[in-house]
Specification:
Blueprint lengths: L5 H35 L8 H13 L17 H30 L16
Helix pairs in contact: 1-3
């Protein structure tokens, strides 16, 4: 199999960008899920363990939404909330794209530059 042709190099060049794009799209999906949770959550009910766990997972997976944490009068429902979470979606997509680029860079690095694997034998 001949691997030096233009089709192979074009395909090899597209794969890292495809991975980075998939990470970015996942970031947008996470932001959209956070928006849906914020829009449909009933804030008048007291906080319970499940709601706290959902809020914590949402804050971990979508940290740009914490930018608007001090916006007490901002509601997620309506045009203002859509604009606010659109900004959050763009920032989260950029964050996830950066993580995807780091992932691609670490995968493509030659094995001589990678840290040595630590093999520990537990002969007891």
């Amino acid at each position: 199999m001949h691997l030096d042709g233009p089709r192979y190099t074009e395909k090899a060049m597209r794969k890292p960008w495809k991975i980075v794009t998939m990470f970015a799209l996942f970031g947008v999906v996470v932001a959209a899920a956070s928006y849906a949770y914020a829009a449909f959550d009933d804030y008048t009910k007291p906080m319970n363990g499940f709601r706290f766990a959902l809020w914590t997972v949402s804050a971990i997976l979508c940290p740009p939404q914490l930018i608007f944490a001090m916006c007490i009068d901002c509601e997620a429902i309506g045009w203002d909330g859509f604009i606010m979470y659109s900004i959050v979606g763009v920032l989260n997509a950029a964050l996830y794209a950066a993580v995807g680029a780091i992932f691609v860079a670490l995968r493509r690095r030659p094995s001589s530059e990678r840290p040595a694997k630590c093999l520990v034998s537990l002969n007891v």
